[in-house]
Write a structure and sequence with these properties.
alpha+beta; Serine Threonine Protein Phosphatase 5, Tetratricopeptide repeat; SH3 type barrels; 4 domains; 8-stranded antiparallel β-sheet; 6-stranded mixed β-sheet; globular
């Protein structure tokens, strides 16, 4: 009878079987474990491996000798003022570190205009001979600087600024190549002088600097909405982000630890609640171990972080993460030991925007000082990354050198001075001075940085033109910054890449507009503010 019923109802049995399989698939996928990175903000101090332990000794002064470089007198003040050791004050004389810089005339070691012959077939299949040229210039920079420390001669050291590099440009004829060589000869002196401060800063801050880090990292969040832990995971990561948003590099970290305690307990419980050896549970445990190891690291607790690194390794989902994080913890322990502290949160001297500390403005401004009547100060509005808005007063002369920080006085309701506060560019979206002067914060690599060295840095820049696809900004030192809408970083048009490949850069930017690209190919646009403005406006008008 059963056989007869099955035979008569084969169609229905197929439907039942299909529905049953779909049900099983639904159960499997409802338990899937997909992970997405979840970023959060951080604020701490990177401790040096060669520290000056006493804060009062963290000062330096600079003397420069470059008699053989014709443009040196113009650049001298900029070089000495723009040298920075993070956590130190740049003082006019008698610094704890005395830095003596010697610079020599850079030169062209050799140059060549190479003739390049290649065969190409046209659209009809006929082979043609194409001849182009490449100008190659080998440049040489010479210089050094000496660090002397009378208080501790173990810091005494001689650093080299010597560098050899090659510049190249594709040319249509030999005359273009010769013109390029002449142009390089005229610019290498200024290029060298402009790079000196950033090179010294990079070396000295790397060795001795207490570098304020306003940055981000990520944790793993569960991105499987049908997983039973989805809501709990989302809440935990939201709470973690909120707690770390309150972290400040110069404030005690204990309140952040207290706020994170419940979330940490939740993550720890995953270790005992999901114990199966299948891939799904391993992946969920991996996220919990990774998150705990990361949290403890940024809470200055490398030993506790190691516990979860070891679990990461034993879990065998991605053991390399655990090994890499253990190495990071060991580096942190070494930094703690060398600096004789156990925290990365301490009060250090912030960057001074390349201004030598010749005066103490804080002491000159007493309590209840009225900035409304003080012509040296102006009212500014700061729009923070948190979307908060702050009205404050700042010294107008400091705006001429506005770079990575802005120092303002927070007034009371009557406009009287209450306290000074310093904001990093990484914490601010915009600064509005008066009614028509607008500044933005853009992350870019300054032209004075060594090619390939250093990372883009958030800086205050004056708004020049906000186009539909490209915006233009001006840095305090005159560099023009170009930034495409949607890009994370901008680019300095004073960089070697822009200076030596201007035509190519314009063609790339005009890729969506063939007519404008053709104009750029004819060298219609130069690397100056007026040409850049005309180009951006033409790009916006392109159809």
């Amino acid at each position: 009878m059963l056989y007869i019923w099955l035979a008569k109802n084969a169609f229905y049995m197929k439907r039942i079987t299909t529905l049953f399989l779909l049900f099983l698939v639904q159960i499997v996928f409802s338990q899937s474990v997909d992970l997405d990175p979840y970023h959060f903000n951080l604020s701490y101090v990177r401790l040096p491996f060669s520290p000056v332990l006493e804060k009062q000794n963290r000062t330096f002064s600079v003397k420069i000798k470059a008699d053989g470089i014709p443009t040196f007198n113009i650049e001298e003040g900029y070089i000495s003022d723009d040298i920075i050791i993070d956590g130190f004050k740049n003082v006019p004389e008698n610094g704890y570190f005395s830095i003596s810089v010697s610079l020599y005339e850079p030169s062209i070691a050799s140059s060549e205009i190479k003739r390049i012959v290649r065969k190409e077939k046209d659209v009809y299949g006929v082979e043609q001979t194409i001849i182009t040229y490449k100008a190659i210039v080998n440049c040489k920079e010479r210089g050094s600087y000496k660090l002397d420390c009378a208080g501790d001669p173990s810091f005494n050291r001689l650093f080299s600024l010597d560098r050899e590099y090659t510049l190249e440009r594709d040319c249509n004829n030999p005359d273009e190549g010769k013109a390029f060589v002449v142009a390089v000869l005229k610019t290498i002196g200024n290029d060298f002088l402009e790079s000196v401060a950033s090179n010294i800063t990079e070396q000295l801050s790397g060795s001795y600097g207490f570098v304020i880090q306003q940055t981000t990292d990520f944790l793993w969040i569960l991105d499987s909405k049908k997983h039973p832990e989805f809501d709990n995971s989302k809440k935990a990561l939201t709470d973690i982000r909120a707690a770390f948003n309150k972290m400040r590099y110069n404030q005690e970290i204990t309140p952040v630890k207290v706020e994170l305690d419940k979330t940490i307990q939740y993550l720890k419980a995953i270790d005992t609640r999901f114990t199966a050896e299948d891939r799904k549970d391993k992946k969920l445990r991996y996220s919990a171990y990774y998150n705990l190891a990361t949290i403890y690291y940024y809470l200055d607790m490398p030993d506790e972080s190691d516990i979860w690194c070891n679990k990461l390794i034993a879990n065998k989902y991605d053991a390399s993460d655990g090994e890499g994080m253990k190495a990071r913890n060991e580096t942190l322990r070494k930094r703690f030991a060398i600096n004789k502290i156990t925290t990365t949160h301490l009060d250090v001297e912030p960057r001074t925007n390349g201004i030598v500390d010749n005066s103490n403005d804080d002491k000159a401004v007493g309590a209840n000082h009225s900035f409304k009547e003080d012509k040296e100060y102006g009212l500014v509005k700061l729009v923070l990354k948190t979307n908060d808005t702050i009205s404050a007063y700042t010294k107008l002369s400091k705006l001429l050198n506005l770079d990575q920080i802005i120092k303002v006085s927070i007034p009371d309701s009557n406009g009287l001075h209450v306290a000074f506060k310093t904001f990093n560019a990484s914490d601010v979206s915009n600064v509005i001075v008066g009614e028509y002067d607008f500044y933005s914060t853009v992350s870019f690599k300054a032209a004075t940085q060594v090619s390939g060295g250093g990372q883009p840095v958030a800086r205050f820049v004056r708004d020049v033109l906000n186009g539909k696809t490209i915006s233009l900004y001006e840095c305090y030192n005159g560099e023009i910054i170009i930034k495409k809408q949607g890009d994370q970083h901008g680019a300095s048009t004073s960089s070697v890449g822009w200076q030596m490949n201007t035509r190519t850069k314009f063609i790339e930017l005009a890729r969506s507009c063939p007519k404008l690209a053709a104009r750029a190919n004819k060298n219609e646009f130069g690397n100056d503010l007026n040409s850049l403005r005309v180009f951006v406006e033409a790009l916006d008008m392109c159809k």
